[in-house]
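Our preliminary data section would be incomplete without showing what the modeling component actually yields. Below, a chain of 482 amino acids is followed by its predicted structure, encoded as tokens that our downstream tools consume directly.
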Amino acid sequence: MRMADVPGKRTYSFAVSTFAGGIDQEPDPQCADLGKSPEAYNVRTENGALSRCGGFGRASKYNAEAGRVMQIPQLPAGGRVIVHRKPDSDILIVRGTEGEYKEKYNIMTDELEFETVALMDCKEPTFAVNYQTADSTDLIYGSPDDTMMRISEGKTWVLGACPKFYKAAMFAERLFGVGTRAYSNRIYFSKQYDPADFTESAEAGGYIDVMSDYGKAVDILPFENYLYIFWQYGITRLKAYGYQSEFVLSDCYRCSSQIRRETVQVCGSRILFAANDGVYAFDGQSAHKISAPISGFFENEPEEGMASGYFRDCYYLAMHSGRYEGSGNNVLLRFGLRRGKWELYTGLCVSGMFTVSAGGFEQLLFTGEGGYICTFNGADTFNGRPIKSKWVTPMSALGRPDMIKSVRCVLIGAQGSGRLRITVRSERGSASRYILPSGSRRIYRIPIRVSGQLLSLTVENEDGSDFTAAAPTVVFTCRSCR
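Predicted structure:
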């Protein structure tokens, strides 16, 4: 932001030199950075200019049997996706209200489909663990309300003698699990090299109890040579190599704000997670809050059913917000670990997130409305719906709170395929004008009349049209407010 004389006129101007600052929902009117926005969604700002973000659509994946990339079919009723990691191509397994299904190529229709492999009333799985044996790539999955299952060499085994976990992880050739209905503060571990044997003995499996004031189990995952267990009110670290007698459990972190389930993700050298009061980054020793710019989403306790993911140095968090239209997880927050910047996407519904890979290529997928699996693919719509984009600069006194600013016009460089709405707002009122950018960049001069001590500029598209806008400048005159 700058305030400077316009040569030859008794006017002043302020310009937004870059839009690359991301979201900041708590700006100070006296020193707000106009490159950050208290409300910006569905926009792209990588090069400093403002553009509509790319959209998403139906996802496709590589199928080894077909030998090519094919569109993923609609999920069966109540379907929850489990990914079976395979060397050539990941395979999708779905548990629905009427049974269990597996991805299969139908040579007759030349399409992917979900083939029924078991007719049963399946509970929603809460964990899935992939691990490599000497002969195959196996998968173990289950929930606190359903018997644990194991897929090995194409066959499915029922592990009826095993505890029923909420979350589980492989570490040091043992399966560790937490969150059973009967013992919510107990950490179970299997016999080494046998994830199905939880016999309690010095040579096989066993368990470790923790204090009940940690609350219920949230997640368990390996990170930097240790196993970390996330509870509702803290984090413990388990050193679990070799014999059981050498296991060491230590306290890492305590908190008063409840850590939320389905939000914990290993993100490179950190673990990110959401609590009732915000998002935190944990380095194995301590945690610090990184969500001050999006604090408005945590003013009230978040609703149940949040979802998260990690992909290409970005942490994704899907949650519900009453500020925007839609039910379920109607907003998606993205945090870029390299730049430390938050971005917001609205107009979608995300119930789960996961990655799939084939031949070294990985992609982030999410389950959306209607049981469809989608991916951000740069489309012009959100699966057929227009992409509404908006950027609002913070209300600012422009360094002179003692002066009344009378806006004369807005100068903005723009190009695009549809109408742009430009709004200037003050504490006294607002005014809007429209421009119709062409396919080539040009500078537009937009007459607008608004007065006030504090000013804010809004740029938004109409009907989801694509656009690029850069370096908007608001021209105004000043007079003393005394």
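Confidence is low (pLDDT under 50) at residues 1-8. The chain is about 0% helix and 50% strand. Preliminary results of this kind motivate Aim 1 of the renewal.
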